[in-house]
């Protein structure tokens, strides 16, 4: 067991899919067709359960560890170009699979033992080389741990920054109570490559409440005082390539350097955070200056750019006039308000977001 928690970025969870042509089925329930039914308790009649979305005809097999799960599921993928159908074995697991070394994440040093554990489930067999190089990972979540006091107040301040500064930014989801302290930049179901999934939460609180069985079994000797975490998710292969990765194989993910992962985190954060630029108002016409001041005032009250823009467009008489004015407002916003990720963050925010320490951080009293 490693009792030391570092602030390195680690791979925390993923789903990996392997073509069934490389897989030997051990547990035949994996490919048995199982349908769900509803039972009338008075008559005993059974009616097949209908789902709003089409589900895989195969039923997942779940292997239970101590307060964690490993899920095996065969799914079909229809290629729209070739009109062919390929079956894949999907395996979903997270860093809890390494138990006492949980805070090391999924890495090159433990991936061999993880592979042996998956094979040991006696659900399916596949070679280690297939697992590492041919499996395509999706829903790849990376995490970074850090320690911070006054966490609820820091989350509240960061929420205001998220909501105010970014064009068309989804409203951040803040839960800041005694039982849960989390800030989601967007919902998982709403994530896009431009607005990816990022969550910041109280890891100490999560471990002693939701994951207390796992913590007490494997991590009771680890100091988790004031432990917090930021997680970010690469959704799929297309998202991985947009970040500069050549593929999403385990081989590629496990060979990412800390610098590579720091750059990815910075890209994720910069999707949501910005700082106003300094500008010369004398370069604006009187009309544009009025709109600039109005945008700054509305954003300062907590409206995102999209909502502020819609409010200023309300009195425009025609659709074309609204379109023209929207372009003008967008140009004003992009040029004079929206800036790149800057160094003007408080020390606490820089700790949360994993940004490099700067020489002269601002403080809450700076104007």
Describe this structure in words.
With about 375 residues, the protein is of the alpha+beta class. Helices cover about 30% and strands about 20% of the residues. It has twelve helices and 13 strands. It has helices at about 110-120, 130-135, 150-165, 205-210, 210-220, 235-240, 250-255, 260-270, 285-300, 305-315, 320-335, 345-355; strands at about 10-20, 25, 35-40, 45-50, 60-65, 70-80, 85-95, 125, 135-145, 175, 180-185, 200, 225-235. The chain has a nine-stranded antiparallel β-sheet with strand order 5-6-7-1-9-13-12-11-10, with helices on both faces. A two-stranded antiparallel ribbon has the order 2-8. A two-stranded antiparallel ribbon has the order 3-4. Helix 10 (about 305-315) packs across helix 11 (about 320-335). The radius of gyration is 25 Å and the shape is globular. The model is unreliable at about 360-365 (pLDDT under 50).
Record keyword descriptors for this entry.
32% helix, 367 residues, two-stranded antiparallel sheet, disordered C terminus, 9-stranded antiparallel sheet, alpha+beta
**Helix segment count?**
12
Rg value:
25 Å
Helices and strands, in order, run as EEEEEEEHEHEHEEEHHEHHHHHHH
What does the largest sheet look like? 9 strands, antiparallel
Assembly status: single chain
- The portion of residues assigned to helices is 25-40%
Distance between the termini: 48 Å
How many DSSP E strands? 13
Poorly predicted ranges: 358-367
Strand order of the largest sheet: 5-6-7-1-9-13-12-11-10
Q: How much of the residues is beta strand, in percent?
A: 15-25%
Structural class of the helices, strands and pairings? alpha+beta
Give the averaged pLDDT, no decimals.
85
| Shape assignment | globular
């Amino acid at each position: 067991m490693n009792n030391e928690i570092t602030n390195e970025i680690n791979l925390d969870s993923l789903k990996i899919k392997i073509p069934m042509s490389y897989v030997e089925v051990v547990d035949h329930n994996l490919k048995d067709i199982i349908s769900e039914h509803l039972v009338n308790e008075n008559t005993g009649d059974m009616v097949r359960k209908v789902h709003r979305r089409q589900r895989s005809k195969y039923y997942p097999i779940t292997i239970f560890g101590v307060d964690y799960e490993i899920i095996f599921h065969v799914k079909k993928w229809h290629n729209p170009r070739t009109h062919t159908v390929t079956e894949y074995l999907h395996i979903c697991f997270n860093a809890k699979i390494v138990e006492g070394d949980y805070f090391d994440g999924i890495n090159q040093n433990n991936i061999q033992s993880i592979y042996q554990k998956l094979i040991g489930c006696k659900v399916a067999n596949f070679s280690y080389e297939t697992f590492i190089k041919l499996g395509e990972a999706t829903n790849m979540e990376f995490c970074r741990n850090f320690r911070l006091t006054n966490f609820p107040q820091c989350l509240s301040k960061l929420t205001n920054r998220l909501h105010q500064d970014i064009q068309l930014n989804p409203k951040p989801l803040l839960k800041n109570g005694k039982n849960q302290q989390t800030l989601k930049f967007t919902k998982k179901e709403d994530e896009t490559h431009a607005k990816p999934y990022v969550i910041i939460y109280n890891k100490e609180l999560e471990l002693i409440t939701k994951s207390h069985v796992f913590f007490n079994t494997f991590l009771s000797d680890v100091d988790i005082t004031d432990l917090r975490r930021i997680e970010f998710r690469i959704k799929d292969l297309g998202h991985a390539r947009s970040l500069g990765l050549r593929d999403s194989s385990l081989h590629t993910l496990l060979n990412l350097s800390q610098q590579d992962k720091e750059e990815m985190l910075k890209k994720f954060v910069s999707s949501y955070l910005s700082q106003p630029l300094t500008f010369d108002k004398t370069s604006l016409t009187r009309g544009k200056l009025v709109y600039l001041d109005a945008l700054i005032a509305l954003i300062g009250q907590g409206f995102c750019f999209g909502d502020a823009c819609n409010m200023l467009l309300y009195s425009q008489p025609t659709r074309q006039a609204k379109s023209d004015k929207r372009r003008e407002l967008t140009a004003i916003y992009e040029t004079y308000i929206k800036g790149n990720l800057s160094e003007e963050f408080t020390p606490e925010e820089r700790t949360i977001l994993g940004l490099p320490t700067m020489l002269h951080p601002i403080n809450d009293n700076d104007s």
